[in-house]
Write a structure and sequence with these properties.
The complex is a heterodimer of chains A (236) and B (492). Chain A is mainly α and 236 residues long. Chain A is built from eleven helices and no strands. Chain A is elongated, with a radius of gyration of 22 Å. Residues 475-481 of chain B have low confidence and may be disordered. In chain B, the strands form three sheets. Chain B has a four-stranded parallel β-sheet with strand order 2-1-3-4. The chains are: A mainly alpha (236), B mainly alpha (492). The complex binds iron/sulfur cluster (SF4) (2 copies). Residues 73-79, 96-97, 151-152, 154, 156 of chain B line the site of one iron/sulfur cluster.
Chain lengths: 236, 492
């Protein structure tokens, strides 16, 4: 088991990390290039920039609108994201791992242990609540696909096992099993990140702009579409 | 207000289309009449749909939007509570994200590598006739009001997805007959407008309105026609000339009182643009007709009458498609508001005594464009005003947006489902008059008030302006707006 753990922390982690990085860059690149192209093709480039910046910021720190709709779900989701972002990136053991895996990192800020532990358990509790709140009401249950539930379960499992590993009282065997699940689960998260809705981790800031630029249609496209599908251009 | 029961729901979702005809002719299973479904027989639609989708992706900018939206949707269902359909039906299928997912899943399955691989692995056959029917029915359930977008943390614009889905469907012949027939008359018909009003009939109507104004307001006003080089080309939804005389007389009086340089074009006089609702191609073609008239007359600005979708399609798309760019597009409420601010309009503040409320048309309020102007105008001569909640940018759609108001066979659905929240909202204000400065909203609100048994009168803002405005006959005499000879003007 030790060897598997080392493999998961070493080569597999490096591979997963690179897949994640390249995948996210690709996702970001595709949308950004599309947006820039669309913007340059548009006859009229008037956009309510200030309004779009404001809305983007407003959703990053959604204090204004969070209470409007599904308030409990929204607040839990927001708090859940805090631990989700901070713990993997700033927990001391993770930082050590980053530095040891020759990813070129020499300095990184670190969360205080207590804070990291509290955030972890908040994230675990948040995950359980989010799962229930997704599957109990009919509207979100019907909306959900396999991955929507799977993500919450996977993330929660990785956080729970991570928390167990951080306990000093845990037995050696318990530690190893937990660490194995933790590391392979985390690697799976990294690999899947760009290929699922979790790509919003990098695409989120583009949301408001994508909608606004999406309405900028290129001139003459309708006629070209008609020609391509073999339909008369002036048919109404 | 009638209560919402299972019976109401069934009535709302009932269809006038005979199931045996739909089956025997292989028509799509949707609740609206389809004009050109016979062009592509059942069985071939999935293939043709994907071809049209591919062509649209090739020649337009939609791909990045689909990439973005299919990668970010959190499926949190926050948008549900902002949609007037879901708020009435509470059906999971009416969650905005559920509807958008119908198109996004087709995109992922057929136009992305990951989707294709996953499809193979899971044995997903991909697009089917049934999925097309479901999509078609669903995107014409949505009024494309974009209210749901306000509550989506990811900024997903379901109105834009509905808009795209409708265009793809239209290219394979699935579009409501009501929209297609009107647009056909507008683009290739003899009259060149959606209501098939020939020019002589328009001229007669204008003469009639001039006479009405002379009788009612005591002032001779000539509607300027074909005035080259005028500041504004005034273009109203053409149906207003037949059905909303008071709105137009209000516009004419305000423009006259303000000494505005304006004209009506005789070669093209319809602001309606159903292209916004089902085809980018037609959206562009209609705007080219507007552009031709702008060029012929050499006017400086386009002035759209009381109409939300007509204003939005011109304001946000004229300069996208036109050759001669940078022609400002203004809504009549902006001009009237300006004139008021300049002190050029005088009103009798005793005329409108009823309690009044105001409905924000989505197409002009949602972008934050026309919100405060009408309210300032209202407050200038109406004392008893009650705001709806929510309003402005957050307003509730009247339930007839996205062209659905023109589809008469959807009336029970529009008034009992999509319009129900609006009816409740109007009733709650306790108002006797509701203002809706939009041709589409007017028809819808009238119908929903009637079908939901809410006894409130519906008018345009310029209808009330027409009643209350005080006109001077070349500055010589003031006339009583109600025709009373002994009347003396207020301090004007
Ligand atoms: S655009 Fe309007 S009608 Fe359509 S889903 Fe959103 S809120 Fe509902
Ligand atoms: S609010 Fe946005 S992310 Fe959430 S379900 Fe609706 S569309 Fe999807």
């Amino acid at each position: 088991m030790e060897a598997w753990i080392e493999f998961g922390k070493g080569p597999l982690f490096r591979l997963a990390f690179v897949i994640m990085l390249l995948g996210l860059i690709r996702a970001l690149f595709l949308v950004l290039v599309g947006m820039v192209e669309a913007y340059h093709r548009a006859g009229d480039r008037v956009l309510p920039w200030a309004d779009l910046h404001k809305k983007t910021l407003m959703w990053m720190f959604p204090v204004k609108r969070i209470f409007n709709r599904r308030p409990v779900y929204s607040i839990v989701s927001f708090i859940w994201h805090i631990g989700l972002i901070l713990v993997p990136i700033f927990y001391s053991a993770h930082v050590l791992l980053l530095m040891n895996q020759s990813l070129g990192v020499t300095w990184w800020p670190v969360l205080a242990q207590d804070v990291a532990h509290i955030l972890t358990w908040i994230t675990v509790a948040g995950g359980v609540l989010l799962f229930l709140m997704r599957y109990i009401p009919a509207m979100s249950r019907r909306l959900s696909k396999f991955m929507d539930g799977f993500w919450v379960v996977l993330i929660t499992a990785v956080f729970v096992t991570g928390a167990i590993c951080a306990q000093t009282a845990v037995s050696a065997y318990g530690y190893q099993v937990s660490m194995l699940i933790h590391i392979y689960g985390a690697n799976l998260i990294l690999v899947l990140l760009p290929f699922s809705k979790t790509a919003h981790s990098v695409l989120f800031p583009l949301g408001q702009y994508a909608g606004a630029i999406g309405w900028k249609f290129p001139k003459g496209a309708g006629a070209k579409v008609r020609t391509t599908i073999g339909k008369e251009v002036n048919h109404v | 207000m009638i209560s919402f029961t299972e019976e109401t729901r069934q009535k709302a979702f009932s269809t006038q289309r005979k199931p045996e005809t739909v089956e025997s002719q292989g028509l799509p299973h949707v609740r609206f009449h389809v004009e050109e479904a016979h062009l592509i027989p059942a069985g071939e639609r999935p293939k043709k749909f994907l071809e049209a989708f591919a062509a649209i992706l090739k020649h337009t900018n939609y791909r990045f939007m689909l990439d973005q939206y299919s990668r970010v949707s959190a499926k949190c269902a926050r948008c549900s509570a902002n949609c007037q359909i879901y708020e009435t039906t509470h059906a999971p299928e009416d969650v905005p994200c559920f509807r958008s997912e119908m198109l996004l899943s087709i995109y992922r399955r057929h136009f992305t590598v990951g989707g294709a691989v996953k499809g193979r692995l899971t044995g997903d056959v991909g697009l089917t006739e049934e999925k097309i029917d479901e999509l078609a029915d669903s995107v014409y359930n949505c009024t494309a009001c974009r209210r749901c977008t306000l509550e989506c943390p990811m900024g997903i614009d379901h109105g834009l997805i509905t808009h795209l889905a409708r265009w793809i469907l239209a290219e394979i012949g699935i579009a409501p007959r009501a929209l297609v027939v009107s647009t056909r008359e507008q683009l290739v018909g003899a009259t060149g407008n959606t209501s098939a009003i020939p020019l002589p009939a328009l001229q007669d109507t204008i003469e009639f309105l001039e006479e009405e104004i002379a009788d009612y307001k005591g002032v001779e006003i000539k509607v300027p026609m074909d005035v080259e080089g005028a500041e504004y080309m005034f273009i109203a939804p053409v149906s207003d000339w037949m059905m909303e005389a008071e709105t137009l007389m209000g516009c004419i009086c305000a423009l006259h009182a303000g000494g505005v340089s304006w004209t009506v074009g005789t070669q093209y006089y319809d602001a309606i643009n159903y292209g916004l609702f089902y085809s980018d191609h037609h959206l562009e073609q209609v705007l080219h007709k507007v552009e031709a008239e702008v060029k012929r007359l050499g006017v400086k600005k386009i002035l759209i009458g009381e109409c939300g979708h007509a204003s939005r399609s011109a304001k946000f798309f004229y300069n996208v498609f036109a050759e001669q760019l940078n022609i400002p597009v203004i809504n009549i409420l902006e001009v009237t508001h300006d004139l008021l601010k300049q002190g050029k309009l005088k009103f009798d503040t005793e005329i409108i005594k009823e309690k009044v409320t105001y409905h924000d048309p989505c197409n002009i309020a949602r972008p934050g464009w026309v919100i405060e102007q009408p309210r300032e105008i209202i407050k200038a001569f109406i004392k008893n005003y009650e705001e709806m909640t929510p309003s402005g940018r957050d307003n509730l759609c009247c339930g007839g947006g996205g062209g659905t108001v023109s589809i008469d066979e959807l009336r029970p659905y529009r008034t009992l489902i999509t319009g129900r929240r609006k009816a409740e909202q109007i009733e709650k204000t306790g108002a006797e008059i509701v203002i809706a400065p939009c041709a589409n909203c007017k028809k819808q609100v009238r119908e929903l008030l009637e079908d939901n048994e809410v006894p409130v009168e519906l008018v345009g803002l310029h209808d009330l302006i027409y009643k209350a405005i005080i006109l001077s006959d070349d500055g010589i005499a003031w006339h009583d707006p109600m025709g009373d000879d002994d009347w003396t003007p207020p301090d004007a």
